[in-house]
């Protein structure tokens, strides 16, 4: 009988924080590229956080009813002004 390796989350890549687009020298292409990629990653993480919270809130509404999801509702309204394009 063979043993199956337990599944584990892959290691997350840690990116070095760089100055924002408004702080870098526009003639330095590497710095602009790094700042732009950092902005894209940060926005993607925020969008995924908002999506996860919305999914949890929708699931809570389906299982518990509208008035029992105050915990997720707090996070929903916390993130809604930031990510209004998702809601």
UniProtKB/TrEMBL annotation:
Its main location: mitochondrion. It holds the Pfam family NDUFB10. It is found in: Mitochondrion inner membrane. The keyword Lyase does not apply. Signal peptide: none annotated. It is a peripheral membrane protein. Keywords: Electron transport, Membrane, Mitochondrion, Mitochondrion inner membrane, Respiratory chain, Transport. It comes from the Eukaryota. GO terms for cellular component: mitochondrial inner membrane; respiratory chain complex I. Coiled coil: none annotated. InterPro entries: NADH_UbQ_OxRdtase_su10, NDUFB10. Belongs to the complex I NDUFB10 subunit family. This is Uncharacterized protein. The lineage of its organism: Eukaryota, Fungi, Fungi incertae sedis, Mucoromycota, Mucoromycotina.
């Amino acid at each position: 009988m063979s043993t199956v390796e337990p599944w584990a989350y892959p290691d997350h890549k840690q990116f070095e924080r760089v100055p924002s687009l408004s702080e870098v020298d526009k003639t330095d292409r590497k710095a602009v590229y790094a700042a732009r990629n950092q902005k894209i990653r940060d926005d993607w993480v925020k969008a995924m956080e908002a999506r996860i919270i919305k999914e949890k809130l929708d699931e809570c509404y389906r299982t518990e009813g509208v008035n029992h999801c105050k915990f997720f509702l707090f996070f929903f309204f916390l993130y809604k002004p930031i990510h209004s394009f998702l809601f």
